[in-house]
Design a protein that fits this description.
Growth Hormone, Chain: A; single chain; mainly alpha
Length: 370
């Protein structure tokens, strides 16, 4: 609940400039990258179960504590360490999926996880907006932190630790391939960086755009952003199950998703009423649904092929996390210098460039098979 409103909290509640907010969000990204790397290393050493529990529990306490930090430097440090802990969860989660799921079910398994996440995201911004409206931002930090702690306790209560599950794939005998020498994977990561860079604008600059240009309240912004989670919760599972069929090219699906994401930014420049904002959110939601499950699936397939779950999935998570370093700050600086309209055009073009990387990736994979 905190993340969608973080940029608004920093500008409206604490009075920071867009430039300062950009640097705080850069600390957010650095913490995310380091957390992804650390999560991969800790997962290889201690297993996914312990990493997932500790990440949830400690980050919950840190969310509560973040509200008491008001200085620029303090927030940079606090946000960095919060994301360091919170994003160590993600590589462990992907390894857990590989442990419990058959290879043919992985895309749908990731989709199911995303379904749960987006159910929370559909409620989170709406509830978060209401909490801010009725209780202030302090209540938002308390409730977000407490729910993380509860999630950690439920995790231990519901899911028993499986020692054998912690030793899957990673512990198999054989030579492990390096993701840094996998040309196809590196090209894939370039596309991921561009998609991540643009997609993350919906968590920093887009809420500001809603507030400053269209004068929406936190409650209205929360409801509009929750539309994304609602659409994904209702549609993603059957949509992915349909496109998972072998007659559909994964690369073509990824190209279509990039076009939809690009359209979600470009339509904002003709946003004359609230309906166009809804259309932009719907375009983004469908682009997300056709993109991230198949990106996850590709990364897990390469990890299995080269017998290196920890490093491959950590690098995948880091690839998205690197986008955090540049996306929020660059978006803020672009808006500060050129305005929202030019910024949205730039985001649309970057997503079109990602299509070139998907085409390159398809050719590399085709040559591997030949």
């Amino acid at each position: 609940m905190v993340v969608p409103f973080l940029s608004l909290y920093l500008t409206e509640n604490l009075g920071f400039t867009l430039s300062n907010v950009g640097w705080i969000m850069t600390a957010f990204g650095l913490g995310s990258v380091c957390g992804a790397w650390l999560g991969g290393k800790l997962t290889n050493r201690f297993g996914f179960y312990k990493v997932m529990f500790c990440s949830l529990f400690i980050s919950g306490l840190m969310f509560i504590g973040l509200q008491f930090i008001h200085s620029f430097v303090g927030l940079c440090i606090g946000v960095f360490f919060l994301l360091l802990v919170a994003d160590s969860f993600r590589p462990a989660l992907f390894v857990a999926v590989a442990a419990y799921c058959k290879p043919e079910n992985r895309t749908r398994s990731i989709t199911l996880i995303r379904l749960a996440i987006n159910l929370g995201f559909s409620l989170g911004p709406a509830v978060g907006g209401m909490i801010i409206y009725t209780m202030s931002y302090a209540g938002l930090f308390w409730i977000d932190g407490i729910t993380c702690v509860i999630a950690a306790l439920l995790f231990v209560y519901v899911l028993n630790e499986r020692k054998k599950g912690n030793e899957i794939k990673e512990q198999q005998i054989g030579v492990k391939g390096s993701p840094y020498k996998d040309k196809a994977y590196l090209v894939f990561l370039c596309a991921l960086l561009l998609i991540g860079f643009t997609f993350l604008q919906y968590f920093s600059t887009i809420p500001l755009y809603y507030s400053e240009v269209h004068h929406l309240s936190e409650k209205e912004i929360g409801w509009l952003m929750s539309l994304n989670g609602i659409v994904i919760f209702l549609i993603e599972m059957p949509l992915v199950a349909y496109f998972e069929n072998e007659r559909f090219s994964k690369y073509r699906i990824l190209v279509i998703s990039a076009l939809l994401l690009s359209a979600s930014f470009l339509v904002l420049n003709i946003a004359v009423n609230f309906g166009v904002l809804i259309a932009g959110m719907v375009f983004m939601s469908f682009g997300e649904m056709l993109n991230f499950p198949f990106l996850n699936s590709f990364a897990m397939d390469r990890a299995e092929k080269y017998n290196n779950q920890g490093e491959y999935m950590a690098l995948f998570t880091m690839g998205f996390s690197v986008s955090h370093i540049f996306a929020h700050n660059s978006g803020m600086q672009l808006i500060n210098r050129f305005g929202y309209e030019v910024t949205w055009y730039i985001m649309g073009v970057l997503l079109l460039v990602s299509i070139l990387f998907f085409a390159w990736l398809r050719n590399i994979i085709k040559n591997e098979k030949d």
